[in-house]
């Protein structure tokens, strides 16, 4: 029996949201079906909304602090969901994961240093690296035809350069949808630890897992990598509360923790948002049942998309994600350059998707689709993508049957 409803379409236009109200400057039209930015078109869990409502009713929104139950909620969540309990002393604050990445750049590197990334990858990684004069060093993922894998030999080679001071791991990987296996992480950790390089492990997507995939926190892989790791986590993707600007950073090494904290103190961003603080605690203590149902629903959306593509649009393939609700669609058979592909989807289909080329090396020919929406919107989105592809005239005429999910 379902306790939660993910089918209801909730109007988001006019709610100052980035996904629906913020489309026009990016896609040239505000009238598209947005399947881009990584938030969900579902309400947050009622258990979270209830706590926020109580605070709204209280009516005083002064400065806030985080206390022991807050850190305990984070540690308890990771222990329950991912079999790893961080020491609550290791937990530090950030208003978002990207600000934590930027703080890490300031804390652990100097201008001119290299920072290694594994593209195609979440594009703000690049801007945080170059924004203060650090260099992007690429260790591109290898596409095997069905999934993306790490290129360990290239990783070793790139880390021979002693000016590479930091590595950004995206785990699970956005947009490639990989949930790295223990074997892969052990090999990765071994290479990084033998070089003694600090690793930021961005684990913001760690709760969105499919098909029995298990997330392994990097810090749990070996003692050596634990002491070099800075792990970013957040309830924002999992519970659709990104607008509450609250995330956490887990740093086992005291030296790295103190360096990170000094930047956060300097920027004076340790205070926190009262709603975000309460929402994190509620989500991580009361959100399990909601998340379990959400994952089943999202897996249903993936199944629908695969069926739709197989029956109606075989030119395009879903790169089946092991995790994340923002998988790639392989559109390489259309032979279109990245911006051209994205424009056709906008102009002929009326659908806004992240262009694969936004994610750097290896992304061209793919688009990223956000599947975290009520099934009816996902159906509408796939029909729009189909219309755009048929408009190219290279493939059989448009199939106008309405698709049964
Ligand atoms: C890998 C990754 N890191 C960070 C973020 C954003 O984090 P925040 O909104 O907390 O800055 C996203 C959002 O899509 C993401 O995919």
From TrEMBL:
UniProt entry tagged with the keyword Signal: no
Keywords associated with the record: Lyase, Pyridoxal phosphate
Cofactor entry: pyridoxal 5'-phosphate
Gene Ontology molecular function terms on file: cysteine-S-conjugate beta-lyase activity; pyridoxal phosphate binding
A Pfam entry, by short name: Aminotran_1_2
Protein family membership: Belongs to the class-II pyridoxal-phosphate-dependent aminotransferase family. MalY/PatB cystathionine beta-lyase subfamily.
Name the UniProt record assigns to this protein: cysteine-S-conjugate beta-lyase
The organism of origin for this protein: Aminivibrio pyruvatiphilus
